[in-house]
Every structure is written in C-alpha cells, then in structure tokens.
C-alpha cells in the first residue's frame, strides 16, 4: 500500500512540479525561495496524500499549500530582504509565448505589484482560477479578489504602457 502511495505521489509531482515552481517563482520572485516554497507545499501534500488524493481537487489543495507556504516563508525574519531573482527561470514556454523582452517587462511590472495583488494575478491569470476559487485558495472574499485583480491589472497596464512608450522613444 505504501509503495502504491509513493508511486501515485511521485507521478503527480512529476507532472505538476514545473507549474508549481513557476507559480511559486511568480509569487516570490526568487528561484531559490520558490524552491523552498514548493518543497514546503509538497511536504504538506505528501503527509496529507491519502486524504487529498481521494478529494475532488488535488490541484486546489496544492495551490492553497503553495500560497500558504509562500506566506509562511515571507514571515521568516531572514526572508525580509530584497529578492535576488531578476530574470524568469528557464521553464518550458508555450509556442505562442511573448518575446523575451516582453516577458522581462511583464516580470518587472509583476514584481512591482504588492504581494496581495501579485497572488491574485498568479491565481487568476496563471492558474486560470475563477474569482470564487481564488478567494477560497487565498482565504479572502470574492470582492477582495475582484478589487485586487482590478488594481493589479490597472497597474500592469500602466507599467507596460510606460515601458512601450520608453521603447518607442529609444527606437526613434
């Protein structure tokens, strides 16, 4: 029975780990810290695996574990320093992905968001969750998700518009 559990868990982790790492990296902005967040979430998942694997949504449990691990990491005193990660980590990118310069600009704009807005953007737009699913994963109201999303998208539009204007001036 334990061997079967381990195989199921390993198969799940193998399939989902890149997405979990990317989401954690988007949340915290540092690949080393993202690795810590993913490891903490996967440790929680392993302990709860017998119960979680029978649930309707293993992914919802794992998303919540990643968000909670990110929040826990941020509370540690030695983590209150500036993040070292500047560039997106090498993760397989879909064929229709934006150019590297555009991704760097997007990351800079995303990194400038307050943590709460960044979490909402990652859940809503990276994982594609609904307002209600995001609210449940973050432990906040649906109204807060909507207002955080609206504020975050407005900030991203402004930052990316400024970046676009800057690039046009440099090319002229």
Automatic annotation (TrEMBL):
GO biological-process terms attached to the record: DNA-templated transcription initiation
GO-annotated molecular function: DNA binding; sigma factor activity
SUPFAM superfamilies in UniProt: Sigma2 domain of RNA polymerase sigma factors, Sigma3 and sigma4 domains of RNA polymerase sigma factors
Signal peptide: none
Superkingdom: Bacteria
Keyword ATP-binding recorded: no
InterPro entries: RNA_pol_sigma-70-like (IPR039425), RNA_pol_sigma-70_dom (IPR014284), RNA_pol_sigma-E_actinobac (IPR014325), RNA_pol_sigma70_r2 (IPR007627), RNA_pol_sigma70_r4_t2 (IPR013249), RNA_pol_sigma_r2 (IPR013325), RNA_pol_sigma_r3/r4-like (IPR013324), WH-like_DNA-bd_sf (IPR036388)
Keywords carried by this UniProt record: DNA-binding, Sigma factor, Transcription, Transcription regulation
Residue span(s) of domain RNA polymerase sigma-70 region: 13-79
Domain RNA polymerase sigma factor 70 region 4 type: 104-156
NCBIfam families: SigE-fam_strep, sigma70-ECF
Family stated for the protein in its record: Belongs to the sigma-70 factor family. ECF subfamily.
PANTHER family xref list: ECF RNA POLYMERASE SIGMA FACTOR SIGM, RNA POLYMERASE ECF-TYPE SIGMA FACTO
Protein name (database record): RNA polymerase sigma-70 factor (Sigma-E family)
Organism: Nocardioides kongjuensis
Lineage start: Bacteria, Bacillati, Actinomycetota, Actinomycetes, Propionibacteriales
């Amino acid at each position: 029975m334990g061997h079967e559990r381990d195989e199921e868990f390993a198969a799940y982790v193998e399939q989902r780990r890149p997405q979990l790492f990317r989401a954690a990296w988007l949340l915290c902005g540092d690949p080393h810290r993202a690795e810590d967040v993913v490891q903490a979430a996967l440790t929680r998942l392993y302990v709860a695996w017998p119960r979680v694997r029978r649930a309707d949504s293993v992914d919802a449990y794992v998303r919540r574990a990643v968000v909670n691990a990110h929040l826990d990491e941020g509370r540690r005193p030695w983590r209150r320093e500036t993040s070292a990660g500047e560039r997106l980590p090498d993760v397989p990118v879909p064929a229709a992905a934006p150019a590297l310069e555009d991704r760097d600009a997007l990351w800079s704009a995303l990194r400038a968001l307050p943590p709460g807005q960044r979490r909402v953007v990652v859940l809503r737009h990276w994982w594609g969750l609904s307002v209600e699913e995001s609210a449940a994963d973050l432990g906040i109201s649906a109204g807060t998700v909507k207002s955080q999303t609206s504020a975050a998208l407005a900030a991203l539009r402004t930052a990316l518009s400024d970046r676009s204007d800057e690039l046009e001036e440099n090319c002229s």
